[in-house]
Write the structure tokens for this entry.
Amino acid sequence: MRIARYLHQDQCRWGLTDEKHAFSLDHLWPTLDQGLAQGMAALRRAVDDASCTGIPVDQIQWLPPVEAHSKILCVGLNYGRHVQETGKTQAPYPSLFLRHLDSFVGHDQSIVKPAHSEQFDYEGELVAVIGREGRHIPADQALDYVAGYTCMGENSVRDFQKHTTQVTAGKNFSCSGSLGPWITPIDADPSTLHLTTRLNGNTVQDASLSDLIFPLPALIAYISTFCVLRPGDLIATGTPEGIGSKRTPPLFMQEGDVLEISIPGVGVLRTPVINEQLS
């Protein structure tokens, strides 16, 4: 079972899902973060005790598995070879920025190439979803605060990203990124996971999470020194080498492309690309 947010009959719902059905739990806990705080065992019991009737997954629309009030913290330049391909030097501390929910779509929904840029770049990432509130979390206890993992097409509008030293503009175009399809609770060390990004079926990024400069426990420890991490908060761990802006010639996404981020044991996030329509 995995944890998901989805749209069904024009209602935003959340619950557990298997290969064929989604089982809603919002009647017990109205928001996803409230559910995550219960722990996976409690969510499974709730589905079993209620004898929930599942909704066939072909009748739902996947939504990003995050609530609007949750924090979406992203890490830049966190793979050594990615730092090398950008020509930058490795920093002593994680490079962090924030994204807002409106900049993401869910699985099988379209990401939008901005009308004001021809530099729409792909970035596949693993995301940790927080399940317990914590502050000043020791690194050796950090994974105890993780409810599960999901995939992110973090993506960047490169020219806007470089307008100033702050990357916010290039990281928050409406519907430019993707999240999902769901949150997968796994007990495995995240450093054993492997991430692959494909554009139109061609592999463009392929890396082990063991290559992270700042592994997830270190990121959780660092971030929790300056803010409270709460259930439902997301930490995107960074993208590996192979980005389109550093290829010769550059490879940017265009309308009609299909982007896939695959992390075995977590999920496959698939999004077609469409052009922004100016009104």
Observations:
- The first helix runs from residue 32 to 36.
- The chain has a mean pLDDT of 96.
- The radius of gyration is 18 Å.
